[in-house]
Amino acid sequence: MAIDIRQKVSREASLLFCIINVNKNPKLSKLSLIADSLRTLLLHNKFKEATTMNIKEIGLVKRTENGSIIKLRTEYVEGLNNIEGFGHLVVLWWAHLVDSEEYREILSTNKPYKTGPENIGVFATRSQLRPNPIGMSIINVTNIDYTNGIIYTSYIDAEEDTPVLDIKPYYPCSDVVKYIKMPDWCSHLPKCIEESASFDWENYFNF
Question: In terms of residue numbers, what domain contains 18?
Answer without folding.
Answer: 5-48
